[in-house]
Design goal:
This protein is α+β, with helices and mostly antiparallel strands and 106 residues long. A 5-stranded mixed β-sheet has the order 4-3-5-6-7. A two-stranded antiparallel sheet has the order 1-2. Helix content is 22%, strand content 27%.
Length: 106
């Protein structure tokens, strides 16, 4: 019975990486104390090891880019994404804060 009660406390969440979008189990404590982004086990470490692509309009995580040797992890911003009012083409045009805008081709 105790195990059944504990299982009922777990919740399913969708990975905050919209390119992944996998469902995974998460405890309510992580939801209360989290930062709003919840990553599946495969994507959990990517914000520290990959460039993050984030939508400037709705703050959705669009995807991650592999970093080259010697690069520092940075966040790229798209003006819009498919989670809000944008298109896939909007997601391709990226920029870094305080730098020259860059095209990254998928």
């Amino acid at each position: 019975m105790n195990q059944l009660l504990q299982t009922n406390k777990l919740k399913f969440f969708r990975c905050s990486n919209s390119a992944c979008n996998k469902l995974f189990l998460i405890s309510p404590k992580e939801v209360v104390h989290g930062n709003g982004n919840h990553f599946c086990p495969e994507c959990f470490s990517k914000p520290k090891t990959h460039h993050t692509i984030e939508c400037a309009a709705c703050s959705s995580i669009i995807d991650f880019l592999v970093i080259e040797e010697g690069e520092e992890v940075v966040t790229y911003y798209s003006q819009k994404c498919t989670c809000c009012t944008g298109t896939v083409d909007d997601e391709v045009y990226l920029s870094k804060i305080n730098s020259v805008e860059t095209y990254i081709h998928c």
